[in-house]
């Protein structure tokens, strides 16, 4: 169970952390839009496969892509907010990045706990 939580945190970080290198607000907004568009595309795309005996592989792959896409969306939004605040020191920026990551993790897990019982 702990391994699945660590895997989810790692996948979210894979999408979230690279977005912090974006230099402009426009690029951050475009990345966030791509991340949010990728989630339904992943669900639709993996839903087209006939899973057969490997159904779990398809579901896990779809979940991984959706977690990374959620990380891209969250990272793009956070970078957009940070770039709008020119008066922040580097330490304050890193604090916002870390705090934003924790908030988005909590929101993601809450959302998944609301959806998971209905699956």
Task: Walk me through the structure.
There is one protein chain. The model has no long low-confidence stretch (mean pLDDT 87). The protein has 119 residues and is mostly helical. The chain has helices at 2-16, 25-47, 55-83, 90-115. The longest helix is centred in the middle third of the chain and has 29 residues, at 55-83. 78% of the residues lie in helices and 0% in strands. Helix 3 (55-83) runs antiparallel to helix 4 (90-115). It is built from 4 helices and no strands.
Number of strands: 0
Task: Give me the Rg, rounded.
Answer: 16 Å
Can you write the helix and strand succession as a string? HHHH
- Quickly count the helices: 4
Q: What would you call the shape? A: elongated
What do the pLDDT scores average to? 87
Distance between the termini: 19 Å
